[in-house]
Amino acid sequence: MEDEEGANRIRRHHRRLLPRKVPTPMNMTSNASENSHATLLARLNSADSDFENAEVLIIDGPSKYVNARVPRRTSNKALVQTVRGGTSLPRYHALRWNTNQESLPSPLQMTERRRGTGFRQVISPQNFGIVLLGGFTTLLKIGGLLLARTFCGDIWPYVQVLSVCALSLDPLKSVVPKVKNIDIGPLHALAGPVLGLTVARPLVRWGLPDLYRTAKFWRRLLPIYCGYMKTKYTAIRKPQEDQQKMWAVRHEWGGEKVHRLVLDLSGFYVKSAQILATKADFVPEPWIRRLSNHFDNAPPRSFPEVEKSIQKELGSCPQRSSLPVDSKGLVPLDAVFLNVETTCIAAASIAQVHGAELKDGKRVVIKVQHLGMEVVMNSDLRNIVWVAKFLEGQLPFDLGPVVREIQKTIPLEFDFEREMYFMSKISSNLEVGGFDRIVCPKPVVEFCAKRLLVMQRLEGIPFTRIIHPHAPDELKRRIPEVVSMVEYLVHAFGQMFLVDGVFHADPHAGNLLLLDDGRLGLIDFGQSKELDNGVRKKLAIMIVALYRNDEGEIARALKGLGMVFKDASGGEVADSTLAVMARILFDTCYVQEATVSPMSNESILRNTPLTTFNQALWLVVRAMVILRGLCFGLKMDVSACTIWRPYAIKALEELEHISD
């Protein structure tokens, strides 16, 4: 009776599925050294001194057992060695017993003792080190599994299936087939952590979405980084021709990996992809080909979700007092629009655009912000900070000021009222400046809100479709018009940068339209900035110095803008080198050094790293980088400094009273 009750208590306390009855005695050596990862539980009957042998119930592993006879006065260690045929002791043997005892307690005595002393009996000073080691071992298992999940994601489903098969639980035997010809013994130790990670994933995704997104980002980024580092160090010892082949294969692989990362995570990573896609001068062609799809082709949200967002934001627009509102505070769409297109025109990182028609028949577009995107973007910005720290010392320039400016400007994109202000301001400035061939959409102010923009619809074709490598012939025939409009746009940026001090900072091909009447449509003013007069004057000085091609004057102007370079060998940086750096940062003309990736050993930044960056100029440099990439992609060699000289002189005359 005691044996049966003891076995039942072991079942309840240790979650072991043991037989209902204690097995009959059998040969001790029948199961000797069968399971190297066993947990030993023994029951030694208190026998009279006349007996030479005592009966022991040994549970070896999750379900193996043997009933053996051993000498009564056998120590715990000797008992283990005897039962296991003289092999090494099990990993967790005798965790709860005193090894100085000559006999072991019965299951009934053991469970009664546990119930009486509670957790202190399990974690005692004698076995604390063993428990700590076991916990550390479990953490190592989980860490190893996470690395395997990161770098060998394709085999992870097989590991999950084999882990389930490795569980020797009676309820699973009827549904889990026995794996033949495969030794799954080693998976016994990993089955628990594998299944734990599998179950934890949906729970973390639901309960801690920020942590889940961060882990997902790094799980995708690290293999890309390690892949490129591997190619970098293995290609050094190869001939030049083999190096090119290796890098071609790696760039195809990397472009696809980055594309899928952006496609899966969206958010701020779409912005990063858009910048990289404009850098045709040094970003590999496979990356350009894939990342150019992210200008306006982000995965859209479903229309019911978009409809709810529009209805909610209409409830806070200036015209809300004259609009009907239901019990949930939502304004029906038919109160404002005759119709709204359910298929979006374009989808981007934080919003998507739908065509619509107002009740007065005016054709408009609705730009509505995705629900919950601010939380996602904050998570992405933290990841970008960690990436900057991770790459610290590996890049020939400091990402810190750039990241700080990004942290400052990106959240401003969520304020559509601010975007409406810049849209109207830049449109007015360009009109006054005589740039009537550039059209900015006019907002319908009465229906705009902080997360909703209703504006004039511009009928045209995005530049991305015209300059795409696989564009149809009828669109490719319009490339000369695009070239003409890009040069015209460079003129307009001279007006925006130097005269007005208010500029559009995101002029990539997805935000440029070739309108039906041949004019240029400029859209998406979320990333716009207003320069203070001091920065505007220093920028004008730099443009004039670049036009004159005076290396000493350029070096002084660069220092005045807060850009500091140093020589990697410890000497003085030559003015000629600083002139090249300035032209890369503030001109759109072709510069050989600008076509070399900053990661390359041949990069000029390797020998002359940028140590101090004026973060107030980040959006200026960003716009210049995008314009240069656009010109390079269209095979244009246009010098912005030559075009901007009249605007710079005009700005200097206006700002003459401002001290440097």
From TrEMBL:
Residues 339-660 form the Protein kinase domain. SUPFAM superfamilies: Protein kinase-like (PK-like). Pfam families: ABC1. Coiled coil: none annotated. Signal peptide: none annotated. InterPro entries: ABC1_dom, Kinase-like_dom_sf, Mito_struct-func_regulator, Prot_kinase_dom. GO terms for molecular function: ATP binding; protein kinase activity. CDD domains: ABC1_ADCK3-like (cd05121). PANTHER family: ABC1 ATYPICAL KINASE-LIKE DOMAIN-CONTAINING PROTEIN (PTHR43173:SF24), ABC1 FAMILY PROTEIN (PTHR43173). This is Protein kinase domain-containing protein.
